[in-house]
Amino acid sequence: MVEWDDVRRDFEADGALRDIYVNDANPVVWDQALEFLVRAGHARYLIDDVEVPLPEKAAQALQEWPDRSPLLVVERDDIEYACHFFDPEQIELDFWPEDVRGPEEFQALERFVTGLGRVTNRVVLVTYEGSQAAEIFRYLPETDTTEAGPLASRRTGA
Fold first, then answer.
1. What is the three-class DSSP state of 50?
2. Which domain holds residue 18?
3. Which of these, 130, 123, 77, lies nearest to 102 by C-alpha position?
4. Angle between helical axes of 103-120 and 27-40 (0-180°, round to 10)
5. CB atoms closer than 10 angstroms to residue 126
6. How far apart are CA 135 and CA 18, in angstroms?
7. Is pLDDT of 154 > 70?
8. Which of 72, 98, 103, 138 could form an SS bridge with 13, CB 3.0 to 4.6 Å?
9. CA quadruple 45, 108, 113, 3: dihedral positive or negative?
10. Could you tell me if 118 and 148 are in contact, meaning their C-beta atoms sit under 8 angstroms apart?
11. Residues 133, 57 contacting (CB under 8 angstroms)
12. Contact by Cβ (8 Å): 116, 124
């Protein structure tokens, strides 16, 4: 389990988003993730910034890209997650780090990441924007736990 003190500086506002990645996705994993996201909180689906009905299958949203810009926005526990449909082999979401203001919000984020990992049975990474190498923490399905990533580990060791 990751402690707030291990990662608190990683959620300071710096003008950049934080990313959530699920790699090795396929149509089944995408549909599991989509179902989880729709049920996880208040969900809105937009194409080119216009709200439209939620897709029944992730493939519908994935087919829109790159000609159009599909986006699923999920609000849960005062954190807004944006799910992008860029790649059929990778699920990518982002959120603003300043939404994670303290231990309670971090626990909400950790529950969200854990839930996503459980339904997809995949490792889930939380990283700095655009860089899976800048990992803050991860969910591991083999142990059903979260652990601090290398970046957070270096900071606590300083």
1. strand
2. 4-157
3. 77
4. 140
5. 27
6. 10
7. no
8. 98
9. positive
10. no
11. no
12. yes
Which one-letter amino acid corresponds to residue 155? R
The 3-state DSSP class for residue 70 equals: strand
Residue 83 is encoded by which pair of tokens?
A: 């799910």
Q: Express as a percent the part of the chain with pLDDT over 70.
A: 95
Residue 157 confidence (pLDDT): 46
Q: Tell me, what's the pLDDT at 151?
A: 67
* Under 8 Å between Cβ of 6 and 103: no
Task: Find the Cα–Cα–Cα–Cα dihedral 106, 138, 18, 127, rounded to 10°.
Answer: 140
Name residue 92's amino acid: E
Question: In this structure, are residues 111 and 20 in contact, taking their beta carbons and an 8 Å threshold?
Answer: no
CA distance 43 to 52: 11
Amino acid letter, residue 35:
E
Q: How many angstroms separate the CA atoms of 137 and 127, rounded?
A: 7
At residue 65, what is the residue type? W
Q: Which two tokens stand for residue 151?
A: 């970046």
Q: How far apart are CA 94 and CA 96, in angstroms?
A: 7
User: Which amino acid would we find at residue 20?
Assistant: I
The residue with tokens 């290398």 is: 150
Kindly give, in sequence order, each residue whose CB lies less than 8 Å from that of residue 130, ignoring residues fewer than 6 positions away. 19
